[in-house]
Amino acid sequence: MQAKNIILPQKWVERKTMPFWDVDERLDTAGRELVDGILTRNRGQGLGPEDLSVAWVLYDPAHLEAGRPPRGYGHRADLSFYPCSVVKCFWLAACHARLEEGYIQPHPELDRAMHDMIVWSSNTATNYVIDLVTGTTGDTLLDETAFAEWAEKRNWTNRYFRSLGWPEMADINVCQKNMDDDRYGRERQFVGEGGRNHNSLTPNATARLYHEIFHGRSFPAERCRMMRDLLARRHDREWVEQNPNAQVKGYFGAGLPAEAKLWSKAGWTGWTGDATNSYRRHDSAYITVPGLPPFILVIATQGKAMSADEHCLPHAARSAVEILESICR
Description:
The chain has 329 residues and is of the alpha+beta class. It has a single domain, classed as 3-Layer(aba) Sandwich (Beta-lactamase), CATH 3.40.710.10. It contains 13 helices and 8 strands. It has helices at 25-41, 61-65, 88-101, 108-119, 123-134, 144-154, 156-163, 186-191, 203-214, 221-231, 237-242, 304-308, 312-328; strands spanning 13-14, 22-23, 52-58, 71-75, 79-80, 261-269, 280-288, 295-302. The strands form 2 sheets. It has a 6-stranded mixed beta sheet, sandwiched between helices. Strands 1-5 form a two-stranded antiparallel sheet. α3 (88-101) runs parallel beside α5 and α4 (108-119) packs across α5 (123-134). It is globular, with a radius of gyration of 19 Å. It starts with 12 loop residues before the first strand and ends with a helix.
């Protein structure tokens, strides 16, 4: 199969796909309230509708027992965006796929890397996982033939997610390492001029991955359990104070009630030296609150002020819970 070097525009682009959820009038109204509230509260931060992307999926037990899909709402949820560390959820799923097929073998160092990739969002751990999953390493420049062979291997992840047949995966790009500064050698060669081959996700694609991990049948049950175990995130104040880099402060977990349970992966960039992947703040999560239906929430924002803001995402998660309380109780 020929490697597909996906070329991405520098600005966010929206493409329409049919979501995996049912549109519901009550949740649509609730979703509009959620988005309007986010935009209103953050207007002074320069957040406009074009800088915000949201997917919200609700798992009403009665709805599911009737054999129907979950209910959902999207605001520009097919918007392709630079995902920051949210992409690490996809590397986690890809790694388990490689383990399942026997391409890579389990070992303690891989366990440690997967844990640190998700729990602490380590880029170094992520890049170790990427090397194993794709059979590539990043280093010196390559000639045209060797680079084409290398790119074919690195693009395995894109081919894998497309092979699952989920429409939401048609336009994603999951092939780049996560870097703490600029790229060099073949990694610079691969990302291309103007960052045109950066990683790219949509809230719909991210929500679909969470759906499959928590409610789907695409992955073996034991693999789903292991992924859920890593995504589980404490958000009690004492623990967060002791672990300030645990992606709770400034993210959904900081706005949830104490009794809520959280499985999440967030991402952030300030100025990276590359305008195409700078100034983003995102979070993605599966959340349960006693007395309410479980839900997936994915929110992506862009802009210098939003990147630095530690209140928008916690407030959005709190608002989602409050809105659900008003329509479900």
